[in-house]
């Protein structure tokens, strides 16, 4: 294990990303456990931080951690040092606390245990997936391939391919396929599949290009009922298991 870590993580310059990734997941799991214990009013678990009766959301602590970890990471010049790893881990914990209350920041009101609060969990899951791809060595739209190309003609060719890949990923996102579009930034074939398939009902693409009652709209609705909703129910169940079930009135 030690040899693998040195070869695949430390020697490839991904130590800070690894520390960020692990700390981000640990920070999210810890804060979700904490808020669930508070929600249950567990006597053995410390309650909310509320000096003088003012409740301080953990997004505030997350911002402080991100500032300290981010500035500390910029100040450290040795990417493989313990200080660099510690700064990256602190930044990861801070980002977990911030994104766990992303819905609160987005809506500018406390929607943590409502249906709107699911947005925070979805953003966290997306962040984990993208960081995992980066940790595996993938780069968005093949940025590393373009940077390593020394031939001008070849570089322009790679740039054209990357622009096409980026365009396909944007089309997939406009069609309401968030995961397909984001993964398509790293894997071109995924972006192509998302771009050529039907858009999801209610997506910007569908609203602009699928006329009400048209054949494409009917096909999109049928596909949504047949494929998307079962997957969404599974994703919701996993989210509830990890992050807790939203309140009925939320």
Unreliable runs, pLDDT <50, ≥5 residues? none
Number of strands: 0
Shape: globular
Strand content: under 5%
Please describe the biggest sheet, giving its number of strands, its sense, and whether it closes into a barrel.
Answer: none
* SS content category: mainly alpha
Number of helices: 12
- Give the rounded overall mean pLDDT: 86
Alpha carbon gap, first and last residue? 45 Å
Mind telling me the C-alpha Rg? 21 Å
* Percentage of residues assigned to helices: over 70%
Helix-strand string: HHHHHHHHHHHH
Keywords: Membrane, Transmembrane, Transmembrane helix
Transmembrane segments: 15-35, 56-77, 83-107, 119-136, 156-174, 181-199
Protein name: Integral membrane protein
Molecular structure report:
- By secondary structure, the protein is mainly α.
- It has a domain at 1-137.
- Helix content is 70%, strand content 0%.
- The protein contains 12 helices and no strands.
- Helix 2 (15-40) runs parallel beside helix 4 (82-100), helix 3 (58-75) packs antiparallel against helix 4 and helix 9 (178-184) packs antiparallel against helix 10.
- The longest helix has 29 residues, at 215-243.
- It is globular and about 60 Å long.
């Amino acid at each position: 294990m030690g040899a693998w870590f040195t070869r695949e993580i430390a020697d490839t310059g991904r130590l800070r990303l690894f520390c960020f990734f692990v700390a981000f997941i640990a920070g999210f799991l810890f804060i979700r456990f904490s808020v669930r214990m508070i929600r249950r009013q567990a006597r053995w678990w410390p309650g909310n931080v509320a000096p003088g009766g003012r409740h301080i959301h953990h997004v505030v602590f997350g911002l402080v951690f991100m500032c300290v970890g981010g500035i500390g990471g910029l100040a450290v010049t040795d990417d493989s040092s313990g200080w660099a790893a510690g700064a990256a881990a602190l930044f990861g914990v801070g980002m977990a606390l911030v994104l766990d209350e992303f819905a609160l920041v987005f809506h500018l009101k406390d929607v943590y245990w409502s249906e709107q609060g699911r947005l925070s969990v979805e953003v966290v899951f997306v962040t984990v997936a993208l960081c995992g791809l980066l940790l595996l060595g993938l780069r968005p739209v093949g940025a590393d391939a373009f940077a390593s190309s020394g031939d001008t003609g070849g570089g322009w060719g790679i740039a054209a391919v990357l622009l096409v890949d980026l365009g396909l990923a944007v089309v997939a996102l406009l069609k309401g396929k968030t995961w397909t579009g984001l993964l398509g930034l790293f894997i071109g074939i995924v972006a192509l599949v998302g771009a050529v398939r039907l858009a999801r009902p209610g997506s910007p693409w569908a609203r602009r290009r699928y006329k009400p009652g048209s054949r494409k709209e009917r096909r999109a609705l049928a596909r949504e009922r047949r494929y998307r909703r079962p997957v969404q129910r599974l994703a919701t169940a996993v989210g509830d298991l990890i992050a807790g079930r939203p309140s009925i009135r939320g």
